């Protein structure tokens, strides 16, 4: 990749990425494709239609750096700075948890309890990137939605996601759990917090 006189092709670079991830990821091919798509800023289909095209040295180097970080266990979503959730591209950072697939089930169950055009008051605790609140707001625009997070940095990411998705009306509150809204009442409360060891906080 560093030899500009003998550039590596898209196909060859992708093969290198797959080989380096083979022993560290159950989805080595997919991981490599997503990372290369991010670096080249092109659709994955071009890897096959234009696989013989050369890759500039800087792009190839960047890709292999991301591959190495993935080999060390860093999630793909954090490496590329986004995660698809409820058909919405969300920015994610090291300050926010990556929305898990099962979180969409939580959204589905919440929507069952919020009828279309309902003005129900909804609270999401520990919003992070804003995934749950944004999904509910997209599907139930009349609902009054509040989302809290202890991290102001995470809330900045959530607000940014809302702005990019043109979703407004969510009340973002900074503070631990119920603290920012302890004087308020809600019809529905949703949360998908981080995994907690069962030995903590008296759990068994």
UniProtKB/TrEMBL annotation:
GO terms for biological process: methylation. It catalyses: L-glutaminyl-[peptide chain release factor] + S-adenosyl-L-methionine = N(5)-methyl-L-glutaminyl-[peptide chain release factor] + S-adenosyl-L-homocysteine + H(+). It is an enzyme of class 2 (transferase). Coiled coil: none annotated. Its EC number is 2.1.1.297. PROSITE patterns: N6_MTASE. Residues 12-81 form the Release factor glutamine methyltransferase N-terminal domain. InterPro entries: DNA_methylase_N6_adenine_CS (IPR002052), HemK-like (IPR004556), N5-glutamine_MTase (IPR050320), PrmC_N (IPR040758), SAM-dependent_MTases_sf (IPR029063), Small_mtfrase_dom (IPR007848). Gene3D superfamilies: DNA helicase RuvA subunit, C-terminal domain (1.10.8.10), Vaccinia Virus protein VP39 (3.40.50.150). GO terms for molecular function: nucleic acid binding; peptide chain release factor N(5)-glutamine methyltransferase activity. Residues 116-197 form the Methyltransferase small domain. Keywords: Methyltransferase, S-adenosyl-L-methionine, Transferase. This is peptide chain release factor N(5)-glutamine methyltransferase. It comes from marine metagenome. The lineage of its organism: unclassified sequences, metagenomes, ecological metagenomes.
